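Following up on my earlier thread - several people asked me to post the actual chain instead of describing it. Fair enough. Here it is, all 315 residues.
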Amino acid sequence: MTSRSHHVDLATNLAGPSDAAREPRFSVRDYAILLKPRVMSLVVFTGCVGMLMAPAAAPLPIVTAVAAVFLIALGAGAAGAINMWYDRDIDRVMTRTQHRPLPAGRLSPRSALVFGLSLAIASVVAMALLVNTVAATLLAVTIVYYVLIYTVWLKRRTPQNIVIGGASGALPPVIGWAAATGHVGLGAVVLFLIIFLWTPPHSWALALFRRSDYHRAGVPMMPVVAGERSTRQQMFVYSCLLVPVTLAPLLIGMSGALYGVAAAILGALFLYRALQVLRARDSEAPKALFLFSILYLFLIFACLLVDRAVALAVW
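Reply from S.P.:
Thanks for posting it. Predicted structure:
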C-alpha cells in the first residue's frame, strides 16, 4: 500500500491542523461515544462470563468483582477512544463513521487522545491495585494490542487485520478469569478461542455489505483486496472451525449437556447462515449473518452461565 490514506503519519495525528481549532462545547454524549458503548457492552459481558466461569478457590468479593468489571469496561473504552483519535481521517470519509465526534468536529483530536490515554492508564493501575497484577497485565496487553498492533500497524496494511487484531477483542473473558483466579486456565483459553474464531466471519460480514465504505477510505479489508468470493469462502472456513471449538467447554468439563445441546443448535444455525453467504451474491445474506453473529456470541456465553447455574442448583 503506497497511497497517503494507507500510511497516516503518527506525528500528523499528534498535532494536526484541526488541533488548532477552538474546542467545541463540551458534550458528555460525545465523550461517551468515544468509548464505543456497543462494543464495550459485549466486552463487559464476555469479561463477566470469564469471571463467573473461573473455578476460583473462594468467591471473589462483590466489591472486587464489580471493580474488575468496571475496569475492563474502562480499558475497552480507552482503547476505543484512542482508536477513534487515530482513525479520524478515514472515519471522515466512511458513511458509517463520519458522524462520530472527531470527524464531525464536535471534539478536538487532542481532547480525545488525552481522554483515551488517561482512562487507559487509570484502568490498568486501578486493576493492579484493586484486583491483581495478572488481570492488570492482561488489560494493559489488550489496550496496547488494540491500539498499536491493530489500529496503527495492521488495519491499513493487510487484509488479515481483523484476524490478527482479533486477539485483543478475545481477551476480556481471559481478564475476567484472571481477576477471579489470579492466573489463566484452560477454560480461559477456550473462551478466548471462541471469540477469536468468531471475529473473522462477524467482521467480514460487515465488510461485505459496507465494502464501498472501506474501499473509499483505503482500508484493505478482505472484500476490497481479495474480492467477495474469496471472502465468503474464508468466512465459511472460519465458521466451520468456530462451531467445534464452542463445544470444547463440554469436552473439558467446564460445562454440561445443557450447554452442549444449545451450542450445537446455535452452531448449526450459524453454519446455515454462513453457507447462505457462501452461495449468495448479494449483500443481504452477509448483513443477516452479521446481525445473527452478535446474537450468537451473546447466546453462547449466556448458555455457559445458564448451564453453570443449573449445575450449581442441582448439586
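The longest helix spans residues 284-314. That should answer part of your original question.
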